[in-house]
Amino acid sequence: MLYTSYGLVIASELALPELIALPEGREEAEADVRIGFGAIAPEGLAGGEQLGPFLWASRDALWLHITGVARFLVTRGREIRVDPEAGIDEESLRTFLLGSAFGALLFQRGLLVLHGNAIRIGDQCLVCAGPSGAGKSTLAAGFMQRGYPILADDVVPVDARCRALPGFPRIKLWRDVADYLAIDTAGLRRLRPGFEKFNLPVVTDGASEPLPIRWVYILNSEHVDALRIDPIQGMHRFGPLYKNTYRMRFLNGMALKPEHLKLCGQLAARIHLARITRPRANFDLDTMIDALLADIAANP
Fold first, then answer.
1. Residue-wise burial string across 285-300, b where 16 or more C-beta atoms lie within 10 A, e elsewhere
2. Which candidate, 25, 22, 245, 23, places its Cα nearest to that of 131?
3. What is the percent of the chain where pLDDT is above 90?
4. Domain edges within the chain
5. 4-31 pLDDT, tens digit each
6. Are β-strands 2-5 and 55-57 bridged in parallel, bridged antiparallel, or unpaired?
7. Which CATH class for the 113-298 domain?
8. Does pLDDT of 251 surpass 90?
9. Which residues contact 240 (CB under 8 A, 6 or more apart)?
């Protein structure tokens, strides 16, 4: 089956309902990326560097073992091989394939990959970045409820022109967040069996092409008494982008750090960058979105 995401044509032996399926009649020869099943050596990557108990990397490949799920081998930005554990469900395979494995593939294709969400604002976009649990997906869903198209969730690839590439048309939401946003999860697919996390289809109208990144907001996990937006200036602008790179340790062993540092510097020079910190109590999503839109208007 052929799909498209991040501007790529993807041929996959595993069904990928999270992606946009291409019409019948397209040729597999057109594929930029191929995903298939096959045996992967259990002892690691020959000629590679061991970066952790379940992670190896070389200049052209990344070997990843998710215990109880599968081994993944990502090579040259063009192929992902999947070696599933016996009896594992497809939902679990897709969770790690479309997350960590695809993140590695995007690195191999020469992209800067941020851990965040990208939202279209006019003819540009904003990226909300931060650690897991900081509220990135909550904020993106709140923007979507106001009619703003979503470019990417969780994994935001950035090209050499500092544009965010459109990703999978969904947001991953925990049940408590969905309840807070009054989103009915009854008809939504779970990420994995037994998980209270769901795939929410997103509004993508007007978000199918790369868009220049103008604003990046770092979501701060340290709560304060009142909502704050603090600009990040000068020499301090590089660090937050570097620290909010998706799966930073994947860069080790793949000889990609010099290009990554260059891309971070290019993006830092072009954007309005700020840190947003939520209040300890009485958090209100609409108040945060209003504050961000006001800051965006003040920094066009």
1. beebbeebeebbeeee
2. 245
3. 54
4. 2-109, 113-298
5. 999 899 999 999 988 888 887 666 768 9
6. unpaired
7. alpha beta
8. no
9. 129, 216, 218, 232, 273, 275
Tokens 């997350």 correspond to 99
Two structure tokens written together for 5? 């995401």
3-state secondary structure the chain: CEEEECCEEEEECCCCCCCEECCCCCCHHHCCEEEEECCCCCCCCCCCEEEECCEEECCCEEEEEECCCEEEEEECCCEEEEEECCCCCHHHHHHHHHHHHHHHHHHHCCCEEEEEEEEEECCEEEEEECCCCCCHHHHHHHHHHCCCCEEEEEEEEECCCCEECCCCCEEEEEHHHHHHCCCCCCCCEECCCCCCEEEEECCCCCCCCCEEEEEEEEEEEEEECCCEEEECCHHHCHHHHHHCECCHHHHCCCCCHHHHHHHHHHHHHHCEEEEEEEECCCCCHHHHHHHHHHHHHHCC
CA distances in angstroms from 219 to 60, 181, 229, listed in the order given: 33, 19, 10
Residue 25 neighbours by CB under 8 Å, 6+ apart: none
